[in-house]
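Quick one: structure for this chain?
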Amino acid sequence: MNIKVLDTTLRDGEQTPGVSLTSNEKFRIANRLDEIGIDFIEAGSAITSNGERESIKEITKQGFNAQILSFSRPLTVDIDYCLDCDVDAVNLVVPTSDLHIQDKLKTTRDELLELSNNAIDYCKDHGLIVELSAEDASRSDVDFLKLVYADAIDHNVDRICVCDTVGILTPDNSYELFDKLKDLPVPIACHCHNDFGLAVANTLSALKGGASEIHTTINGIGERAGNTSFEECVVSIDRLLPQFDTNIKIDEIYDISKLVARLTGVYIQPNKAIVGENAFSHESGIHSDGIIKNSATYESITPELVGRKRKFVIGKHMGTNGLDNRLKELGLDVDKNQLQQICDNIKVLADKGKTVTDVDLQVIADNVLEINYEDRIGLDEVTIVSGNKVMPTASVKITIDGEQILNAGVGLGPVDAAINAIKSLDVFKDIDLIEYHVDAITGGTDAFIDVIIKLQKGDKVVSARGTEPDIINASVKAYIAGVNRLLRD
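Got it. Here's what it folds into:
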């Protein structure tokens, strides 16, 4: 059975505290959603603002394969704004719990029914596809919920949706609820929230109970604890529920996850399933050894399935097999004794609480193998001009292949200005800074600053570290160390 996916990242997802997307950012996300096979895109809520309507119009005029919806209350003014945006459909949201009907709307069940039916009629009269979402359905009287849906079907609604608005369903009663509704003659959707961490589990149970459509957001973003995670739900359907399938291009899931994370500024927790930084990372010696022999020993899916790559993490739990594999990735061949010596040195460093980066591994391995590399780039001098009314400006003097070069740059802050002054030079232009992390490793105002960065050139990613009392010098030294490493490789 093919399951349809409605993505509400641009509406429910944007309701994440602190998130506000520009029209261009919304378009970029919508375009990518369409490319990966999303069936329905809820592009926003047309009633919200002029800017929101312009964003929706920009999406609707693209001719996407996906059906484009706007959120709407059962009010003529909302529906008219949806029509003005030229959407294909509306997600018509009608509260059905007595709590919402009486305390929020200050109305009655009968009046609510009339409001819902009239709104559906108005939408259908104006050529809109209608998905009726019962808000707070999981706390509604089931008989009344069925009545709302039955009336909607009589008024030619196209789809209906059960909303677990405050995330109180469990997998068992999610199945039971959808099982009671499965005989209704229109497609039934499931819209879950993650207040108890059960949104994905409840959505999968809803499918078993009779749902044929799911509502999700990329990375599970949304109000409070968020919505059903798109990537977790879609991959679970693909791998764990063979009776169902979707139209999603699963191998492109990681790319859209990173895009949404960048544009929204919502950090992806490292241990998040499927798309988290650690989802396919292995440090334990036992695990690494098993993965090298047969990845199925400690991975239920391959990272390539979702557009990822496996990583062996350097640390005190790493075994010699995993370490040897990582050294080979770095182009280093060692014998058994050298491998054990490198492993022992890593554990000494890790026991002191130090994060062991690729740069640390390279230094440790070089010392054991007595390899000395000559860096192509050296830092000679950094000068910063900054103040309340002055855009931070940096001048840097560096030596590249024996030639001394002076360059300048501006930025949002002194570190940004210094890095910009360096990376505007030709030798740096195809290198991307993908991660920047700062720690004060001693106390007081004279604390040493530990800067750890990740740089990428093509498909090669390296870590680098700079430790100085001055954060600007530490940052620039870390950046240049990483670039030297990439250029050497």
